[in-house]
Design brief:
single chain; 144 residues; mainly beta; Chitinase A, domain 3; Thrombin, subunit H; 2 domains; 5-stranded antiparallel beta sheet; 4-stranded antiparallel beta sheet; 1 helix; 42% strand; elongated
């Protein structure tokens, strides 16, 4: 029986939830997630945890934050004046956009608070600092 290894392209269905039971993503009602194992297309702990699975197998995967989206960094939260936004933009909580770093790399930030003329931006991933849990059903393995 074939099991998942580095370089295989796999398809799987999944449901992901947080420690408090909140479901943050699921493939239910959609096509299975497909990716090449070891190609760094999914979070590191997830990529590692599916190795050794056989087609048709179900597995629960529990990932600490450092194997998922990493820790939450307080220094990635900044307060900026409303004037930092273009005049035609009305920031709202949850509004996400890309900023360019001095290095030229894009960074996604989102508005997490608005108080008067002060807008609080957060550049952490939405799931940073969270332990993640997944129910996984491996649909297929395409070995190279």
């Amino acid at each position: 029986m074939s099991v998942v290894k580095e370089g295989d392209t796999i398809s799987l269905h999944y449901k992901g939830w947080l420690d408090d039971g909140t479901v943050f993503d699921s493939s239910e009602g959609r096509q299975p997630l497909s990716f090449r194992v070891g190609a760094e297309k999914v979070i590191p702990g997830f990529d590692e945890a599916v190795r050794g699975m056989a087609a048709g197998e179900n597995r629960q995967i529990d990932l600490p934050a450092d194997q998922a989206y990493g820790p939450y960094y307080d220094d990635l939260v900044r307060v900026v004046p409303r004037s930092a936004f273009p005049a035609h933009t009305t920031p709202t909580i949850g509004f996400a956009f890309e900023m360019e770093l001095p290095s030229g790399e894009p960074m996604t930030v989102r508005v997490i608070d608005i108080e008067g003329d002060e807008i609080t931006l957060d550049a952490n991933h939405l799931l940073a600092g969270e332990n993640l849990h997944f129910d996984v059903h491996l649909v297929s393995i395409d070995s190279e």
